[in-house]
């Protein structure tokens, strides 16, 4: 849940999730629909699907125990080098470091060298005797990430309270390196076309050819182009939405109709117990003013 999502956002979701799934075995027996419903609003829904698949693998092939090698852990769906090292350290207390943006920034500043010029795997290997000099590897993995998030921050690092400043070349140098900006904001303009009826229903489809929210139920969505024909639709409003690093400008159109294309299914705007992504829920909210 913490991949690409802030802690303060995750906490209520996590509490609700573990209340429903107290054991790995219970999670492995759950349906994808239930997990997606509990995940609703967090985004990056592939994480939820991978979590379900991984739970089944761990229960059926590993007796509900996380493997102890990087290779085996990285074979689990959705697990890369960062997550594998985090799990090795946090779960098995092995000498490993989860190299995320926070950790890269800490190491980069300590030696005052641009991140793009550092081989972080080699850096850790070279300094492993200094880095792993206690048996508290689990604490160390977490501490590094938290240190980067709370003290060695991207902007206005708290050097005055930093315990590492005596050995930090960034702190001592008059020519300090610049922090990398990881996310490039992408701006997109979309037209959203909503079939609705007098029963307070909206027609949704999974056949939108989009690079985001694939496989989810959405109205018809098209990227705004000069030749887009909207003459058969009524304009409702413009509004903005954000998904990850995408900033979306939405033009919302609608028409009342009892007939919909074959790939569409009617959904209730007010009462829907199925999983619906937040992006779609915001559309529900916009069109609800028509009733």
What does this molecule look like?
The protein has 291 residues and is an alpha+beta fold. Helices cover 37% and strands 15% of the residues. It folds into 3 domains: 7-92, Hypothetical protein, domain 2 (Endonuclease III, domain 1); 101-172, Helix-hairpin-Helix base-excision DNA repair enzymes (C-terminal) (Endonuclease Iii, domain 2), CATH 1.10.1670; 186-290, Nucleoside Triphosphate Pyrophosphohydrolase (Alpha-Beta Complex). The chain has helices at 7-20, 24-28, 32-39, 46-61, 70-74, 81-92, 101-110, 120-126, 128-131, 137-150, 169-172, 278-287, and strands at residues 186-197, 201-204, 220-223, 234-243, 246-256, 265-268. Strands 1, 2, 3, 4, 5 and 6 form a 6-stranded mixed sheet that branches. A hairpin with a 3-residue loop joins strand 1 (186-197) and strand 2 (201-204). Helix 6 (81-92) crosses helix 10.
């Amino acid at each position: 849940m913490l991949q690409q999502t802030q802690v303060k956002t995750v906490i209520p979701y996590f509490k609700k999730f573990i209340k429903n799934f107290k054991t790995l075995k219970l999670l492995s027996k759950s349906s994808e629909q239930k997990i997606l419903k509990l995940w609703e609003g967090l985004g990056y829904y592939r994480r939820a699907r991978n979590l379900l698949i991984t739970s089944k693998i761990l229960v059926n092939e590993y007796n509900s125990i996380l493997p102890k090698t990087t290779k085996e852990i990285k074979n689990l769906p959705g697990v890369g080098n960062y997550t594998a090292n985090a799990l090795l350290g946090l779960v098995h207390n092995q000498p490993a470091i989860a190299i995320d943006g926070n950790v890269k920034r800490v190491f980069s500043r300590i030696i005052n060298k641009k991140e793009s010029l550092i081989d972080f795997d080699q850096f850790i290997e070279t300094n492993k005797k200094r880095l792993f000099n206690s048996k508290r590897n689990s604490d160390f993995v977490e501490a590094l990430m938290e240190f980067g998030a709370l003290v060695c921050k991207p902007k206005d690092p708290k050097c005055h309270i930093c315990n590492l400043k005596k050995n930090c070349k960034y702190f001592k140098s008059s020519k300090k390196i610049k922090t990398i900006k990881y996310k490039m904001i992408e701006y997109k303009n979309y037209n959203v076309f909503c079939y609705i009826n007098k029963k307070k229903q909206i027609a949704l489809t999974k056949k939108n050819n989009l690079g985001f929210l694939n496989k989810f139920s959405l109205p018809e969505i098209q990227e705004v182009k000069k030749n887009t024909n909207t003459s058969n639709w009524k304009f409702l409003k413009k509004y903005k939405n954000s998904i990850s690093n995408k900033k979306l400008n939405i033009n919302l159109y609608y028409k009342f109709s009892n007939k919909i294309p074959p790939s569409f299914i009617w959904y209730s705007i007010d009462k829907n117990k199925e999983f619906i992504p937040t992006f779609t829920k915001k559309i529900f909210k916009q069109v609800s003013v028509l009733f």
